[in-house]
Amino acid sequence: MANNDQSLCRQFAKIIGGQPGFAGGKCVATITRSEIKETILGKKFIVTTSFSFESKNKRSGRALCVGRIALLQKEVQPFISAIRDQKIKVSSVHNEWLFENPRLIYVNIESVEKPLTFAIKVKRALRATNGKR
Predict the structure, then answer these.
(1) Rounded distance, CA 58 to CA 39, Å?
(2) Which are the contacts of 54, defined by CB distance < 8 A and separation ≥ 6?
(3) CA distance 128 to 22
């Protein structure tokens, strides 16, 4: 990944409030939801949420931007409403685990736009879930 893309990735992660990283040629920002004390089959489980961008167009600066957000049930509707209001597509809403406590719902989102614009929109939607992120 080019140096300017690494800088862009750090900015992307900083806006979202996550840790930047690179996987398979794409920028990934990961947020650990340490406030959620999650267990699966009675064992501790670390809850993470991730956002990424890839396939950036050099001329327009637009890229494929996606996210996989782990939410508590009470956070799902506020997040979905906030993300849709900003014209980001919700591509799936599902649970991934059985026997987890508390119940987690995963929301996948997708958009083609400038990564920093996407990051700002995501930050707004995350704030809508609990008002403090």
Answers:
(1) 43
(2) 24, 25, 26, 27, 63, 64
(3) 28
- The reply to whether omega before 102 is within 30° of 0 (cis) is yes
Question: Cα–Cα distance between 1 and 28 in angstroms, integer?
Answer: 12
What's the domain range around 45?
3-130
What would the two tokens of residue 78 be?
């506020």
- How many structural domains is the chain composed of? 1
Q: How confident is the model at residue 133 (pLDDT cuts 50, 70, 90)?
A: very low
CB neighbourhood size of 32 (10 A): 13
Q: Is the pLDDT of residue 13 over 50?
A: yes
pLDDT exceeds cutoff 60 at 131: no
Alpha-carbon torsion (46, 98, 81, 52), positive or negative: positive
Q: How far apart are the first and last CA of the chain?
A: 29
Q: What average pLDDT score do residues 62-90 get?
A: 97
CA dihedral defined by 97, 98, 100, 104, rounded to 10 degrees?
50
